[in-house]
Amino acid sequence: MTQPEILKPLKTWSHLAGQRRKPSEYEIVSTNLHYTTNNPDAPFELDPNFPIAQWFKKNRNACPLNHADWDAFRDPDELIYRTYNILQDGQETYVHGLLDQMSERGHDNMLERTWAGSLARLYTPSRYLFHALQMASAYLSQMAPASTISNCATYQTADSLRWLSHTAYRTKELSKSFSDIGLGIDERRYWEQDPAWQGFRELVEKALVAWDWGEAFVAFSLVIRPAIEETVLRALGQAGRHNGDMLLGMLTDAQLLDGERHRRWAGALVRFCIDSEGNRDVLRQWVAKWEPLADAAIDDYCSALPDAPGSAEKARVATRKFRESLGL
User: Is the pTM of this model over 0.70?
Assistant: First the structure.
């Protein structure tokens, strides 16, 4: 009688054994973490027809983007929670140092009142915009088909909260020097009614209901975020420098460092996707859908910026160069 074969137990992290080397810390704590992808028909190991299961089957599993192994995606920066905190602790120390030093030297008291009015209209309402970015990244974190994608979106969510917090802090500081121009009071009115913001408001409100995870990724990471970075961060920061507001310029520069990292992982995901047949066309179709709204938002916002000639054209060119660099 033949003896049954005795199977050797799998080693820890056996799903990484094929690479024939010891897994990195990033690979150990970041890969293959989504249990909801184990059974495509029943994402939560429960009734496949209850509402949340149907939601994931429709907006994740049925996404037009296809890949044979989503778990093979890797963040080019290989960030994990520990290293993200180290990185951003340094960033926050830098930002807090800026705020403290500028406060000690009476920075806000040296600003022209007309520029303070521009800040009340074009800067402090941006916390609504940054909150929209935060919500979008949190949604992508939930819906992405691989944990390595979700992790990138999670750190992006935290970055958006940091941007929002910086803006709220500056709003309060500015209100102490300019107490009669609506700082901390009129931001919602500007966001909902001022022509400068209506393009971005329409853009993010429509994109927040793009439920398909792939379309949400394209809309925000490839179209909306680059548009915001080139206008509400870069162009506004440059206008601030022209008006003696070095603090704003340095704050937006710090935020643009986060934006560069966001573009790196988004670009890596696009390159990962277009290796699979048909995905390039899907991505291009979504870009074509959202790009006109982004262009209109850029025009609306930049037309209100003081001392920023040609900023709209520069922003549109920069956003297109980013997408062209990805083959889109």
Answer: yes
Residue 46, classed as helix, strand or coil, is coil
DSSP, res 244: T
* 61 contacts: CB under 8 Å, gap ≥ 6: 40, 43, 145
In DSSP notation, 153-210 reads HHHHHHHHHHHHHHHHHHHHHHHHH-TTS-TTTSHHHHHHH-HHHHHHHHHHHHHTT-
What local confidence, expressed as pLDDT, does residue 42 receive? 87
**DSSP letter (8 states) at residue 17:** G
- CATH topology classification for 70-324: Ribonucleotide Reductase, subunit A (1.10.620)
Asked if the model's pLDDT at residue 188 lies above 60, the reply is yes
- pLDDT bin (cut points 50, 70, 90) of residue 23 is confident
Residue 207 in tokens: 């994109």
Cα-based distances in Å from 245 to 3, 102, 201: 81, 10, 26
Q: What average pLDDT does this structure show over 156-179?
A: 97
3 state SS of 3: coil
87 vs 105: CA distance, rounded Å: 28
